[in-house]
Amino acid sequence: MEENNEFLQNVSQWANDVLVWIGFGTLAGLLAKAIMPGKDPGGAVATLAMGIGGTVIGCGVLTFFSPQGTRVTPISVAGFAVATAGSFVILFFYKLLGGYYFREGDGPIVRNRPRRKAALRRPAAVVYEDEV
């Protein structure tokens, strides 16, 4: 009976951890998209995946460089900061590899400025012909 109870507690703790990482990963992904300038590709699923991946990468790097035995979670301030930084890095590479910054063979992308309305422009030259 105790083994069954211990198993259920482990499953409950694991489910709680997964849901926390998904929730804070989503928030980190949204914050990274808000910080990154320009139009962002991807929808809700891409933001969710990018946020969770950034959380795993950021908290993993922080855990690697922390003293032995330190548990890093995205709930802490440092954990959320590195999760957002990890999501930001993933978004940058997503935009870089997706052709947002460069297109193969074309050189850098040049964005055209919007044109002014024709009514506001002066004609270049007006020619009047006299009637004969």
UniProtKB/TrEMBL annotation:
Cell inner membrane as UniProt keyword: no
Membrane topology listed for this record: Multi-pass membrane protein
Protein name: Transglycosylase-associated protein
GO cellular component: plasma membrane
Protein family per UniProt: Belongs to the UPF0410 family.
Membrane-spanning intervals of the chain: 18-36, 43-66, 72-94
Source organism (scientific name): Pirellula staleyi (strain ATCC 27377 / DSM 6068 / ICPB 4128)
Keyword line: Cell membrane, Membrane, Transmembrane, Transmembrane helix
Protein's cellular compartments: Cell membrane
InterPro entries attached to this UniProt entry: Transgly_assoc
Main location: membrane
